[in-house]
């Protein structure tokens, strides 16, 4: 074979060899790129698993909800409602327990108030009571300090102006009124006339002491024997109803303590109208509760 032909063959062989090497390098490069992509994808998957695991650890409810995803919608709703109800009941129980603890602590800090005459008198030493002969019992039975009682026999709503002025001169922390028994006869059972006069007294008090805490006592009930002698006394209930309505109009506390006398006819004097000593402490406790003193 001529030398020139051999040279051509050798050159072609060399070119084929170079082309083969280039193809192999290309394949290796592609394989390297694919491997890198696979490694990166695996890393992302691993990181995602780590994040989901962390979410499950930090949010336990997530696993619970995930478990419910495969269940019926109605079952899921019922389960959620049951869970909410359980949490609500637990919160209420914790709140009730806390309130009980607070109440017990408050009870330890505040000793029980005494109900004896001396304790009641001390608590009422800044208050003043204006009233009729029934109210005089607080003096007669030494329930309250006489200096804190402005009372007289026969006192009525229409005539109580000067007595109320005297009471206000004492600069009371609060004022109690106990008027009305004598008005039953004076007003001939007309409750409208009674409250008209009573309202004048309320206006006088508010004109002079607009911020003074004021409390109005109901007329104490009388026994049937008293009504037999004076039929007009049968209107005690009507007068009290009208007086209660008047107090509501003025935003004044109305204190009805008549129930303490129920079943205790022995707590009445012979006239079946005035009272013995027994109910006065109970009556005073009612006033104390109303006034918060």
Describe the structure.
Helices cover 62% and strands 7% of the residues. The chain is of the alpha/beta class. It has two domains: 107 residues; 175 residues, 3-Layer(aba) Sandwich (Rossmann fold). A five-stranded parallel beta sheet has the order 2-1-3-4-5, with helices on both faces. Helix 1 packs across helix 2 and helix 8 runs parallel beside helix 10. The model has no long low-confidence stretch (mean pLDDT 81).
Task: For the structure shown, list the relevant keywords.
293 residues, alpha/beta, five-stranded parallel sheet
CATH superfamily membership of the largest domain? SGNH hydrolase
Using only CA atoms, what is the Rg?
A: 47 Å
Q: Residue ranges: pLDDT <50 for 5 or more in a row?
A: none
Estimate the strand proportion.
5-15%
Helix content: 55-70%
Mean pLDDT over all positions: 81
- Count the E strands: 5
Assign the CATH class of the largest domain: Alpha Beta
Whole-Å distance between the termini? Answer: 137 Å
Order of helix and strand elements from N to C terminus: HHHHEHEHEHHEHHEH
How many domains would you count in the coordinates? 2
What can be said about the biggest beta sheet?
5 strands, parallel
CATH fold node name of the largest domain: Rossmann fold
Secondary-structure arrangement, i.e. CATH architecture of the largest domain: 3-Layer(aba) Sandwich
């Amino acid at each position: 074979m001529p030398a020139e032909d051999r040279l051509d063959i050798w050159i072609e062989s060399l070119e084929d060899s170079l082309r083969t090497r280039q193809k192999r390098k290309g394949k290796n490069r592609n394989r390297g790129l694919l491997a890198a992509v696979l490694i990166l994808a695996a890393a992302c998957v691993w990181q995602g698993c780590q994040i989901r695991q962390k979410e499950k650890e930090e949010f336990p409810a997530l696993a619970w909800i995930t478990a419910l995803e495969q269940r019926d919608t109605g079952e899921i709703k019922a389960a959620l409602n049951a869970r909410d109800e359980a949490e609500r009941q637990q919160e209420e129980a914790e709140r009730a327990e806390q309130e009980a603890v607070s109440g017990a602590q408050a009870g330890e800090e505040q000793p029980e108030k005494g109900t004896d005459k001396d304790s009641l008198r001390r608590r009422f030493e800044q208050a003043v009571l204006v009233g009729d002969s029934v109210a005089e019992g607080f003096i007669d039975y030494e329930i309250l300090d006489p200096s804190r009682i402005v009372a007289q026999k026969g006192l009525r709503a229409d005539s109580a102006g000067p007595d109320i002025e005297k009471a206000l001169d004492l600069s009371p922390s609060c004022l109690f009124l106990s008027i009305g028994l004598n008005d039953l006869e004076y007003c001939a059972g007309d409750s409208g006339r009674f409250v008209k006069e009573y309202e004048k007294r309320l206006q006088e008090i508010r004109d002079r002491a607009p911020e003074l805490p004021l409390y109005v006592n109901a007329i104490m009930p009388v026994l049937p024997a008293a009504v037999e002698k004076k039929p007009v006394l049968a209107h005690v209930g009507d007068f009290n109803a009208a007086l209660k309505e008047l107090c509501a109009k003025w935003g004044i506390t109305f204190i009805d303590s008549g129930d303490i006398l129920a079943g205790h006819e022995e707590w009445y004097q012979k006239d079946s109208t005035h009272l013995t000593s027994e109910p006065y402490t109970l009556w005073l406790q009612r006033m104390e509760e109303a006034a918060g003193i």
